[in-house]
Amino acid sequence: MKKAIKKVGRPEMTSGKRTKIIKARLTEDEFNQILIIEKSLGITRMELIRTRVLYNSSKVLVNAGGLLKQLDAIGAEMGRGGNNINQLARHANILNNEGLLTESVAREFNELFRSYITIQQELEKAMRQIIRLMKS
């Protein structure tokens, strides 16, 4: 009895296989523009062309790697801000227990805290909008 030879690698595509080629002539400037967009978005030239031509030319394309780095930096900064607020609140509690906390300091702290919360809410809203745009 012969043993069946097992194929290695990726299975052959049965549908959706791209077999057609389109060629386009571009000026040096046009080609350089495509290269710049390709590098800034972190996608291949063909992904860029397919997305812009076939699917929706107004669709927002983003460099996912760059976006994730920026979001990570924003998250770290928000964490540092939260830590600072906790330290200030702890210090205010110590001052209050010793009877040294003035009303003006408490008022200023509350105002800064409200401002921080507002900025955080706006940032969360912007992130949700970015996520929605990336899904569509």
Give a brief rundown of this model:
The chain has helices at residues 28-41, 45-55, 64-97, 103-135. The protein is an all-alpha fold and 136 residues long.
Please supply descriptive tags for the structure shown above.
mainly alpha; 4 helices; elongated; single chain; 136 residues; 2 domains
From the spread of the alpha carbons, the general shape counts as: elongated
* Count of extended strands: 0
Overall average pLDDT:
84
Strand proportion: under 5%
Biggest sheet overview: none
Radius of gyration from the alpha-carbon trace, in angstroms:
27 Å
Q: How many structural domains can be distinguished in the coordinates? A: 2
Secondary-structure class: mainly alpha
Low-confidence stretches: none
Count of DSSP helices? 4
Order of helices and strands: HHHH
Q: What is the CA–CA distance across the termini?
A: 53 Å
Helical content stands at: 55-70%
